[in-house]
Amino acid sequence: MSPLPSPRITSALSAEQLDRLMTCGRPVDLPEGTRLFEEGDPAQRFWILRTGTVTLDVSVPGTRSAVIDTVNAGELLGWSWLYTPYRWHSGAEAMTRVRAYEFDAVAVRTLMVADPVLGSALGHLVGQTLARRLVSARTRLLDLYAPHGSGL
Predict the structure, then answer these.
(1) Strands (E), 23-128
(2) Which end of the chain is more exposed for a tag (fewer CB within 10 A), N or C?
(3) β-pair partners for 104
(4) Nearest residue to 22 via CA among 9, 11, 35, 33
(5) Dist CA 130 CA 81 (whole Å)
């Protein structure tokens, strides 16, 4: 498999670590409108997008799901696979056609234990991704639900 185009992945992992990670991945091509996962479902895989855009959404009682973030080419999609109870904390849908590498979560977690340096680097990358997603979700939810003119 060729190296990933993501500067985040390539800056977080050495070429050798990236090659090891890629042994757990496979290329996928997802049509626009594909639901990748649903909030609460088991998180058994994750993706690194090569092309396209995926929206992340959360359930809002009494209304339709709210889009809280978008994931673009070169970015990691999914973090729930790394933390017990390994269930998705949001839903995800391909906004456009998406080409990505899909990774088996159990295989990657096993690899992370076997190679603690790789595990630390990948865990750090997932943590950075999670932090960005939380800030984005907070901002989007305030935009959607804060009272107009409240200054929030």
Answers:
(1) 25-30, 35-37, 45-51, 53-58, 66-72, 76-77, 91-94, 98-104
(2) C
(3) 45
(4) 9
(5) 12
- CA angle 88/79/64 to nearest 5° reads 40
Considering only the C-alpha atoms of the chain, give the largest distance between any 2 of them, rounded to a whole number of Å.
Answer: 53
d(CA 152, CA 139): 9
User: What tokens were used for 121?
Assistant: 């680097």
Give me the sign of the Cα torsion angle 35, 41, 45, 46: positive
Other C-beta atoms closer than 10 Å to the C-beta of 131 total 11
**Length reported for the chain:** 152
Query: Which candidate, 104, 93, 82, places its Cα nearest to that of 34?
Result: 93
Rounded to the nearest angstrom, the gap between the alpha carbon of residue 53 and the centroid of all alpha carbons in its chain is: 11
One digit per residue, the tens of pLDDT, for the chain of length 152 reads 333 333 467 677 888 999 999 999 999 999 999 999 999 999 999 999 999 999 999 888 888 888 888 999 988 999 999 999 999 999 999 999 999 999 999 999 999 999 999 999 999 888 888 877 777 767 776 776 666 655 55
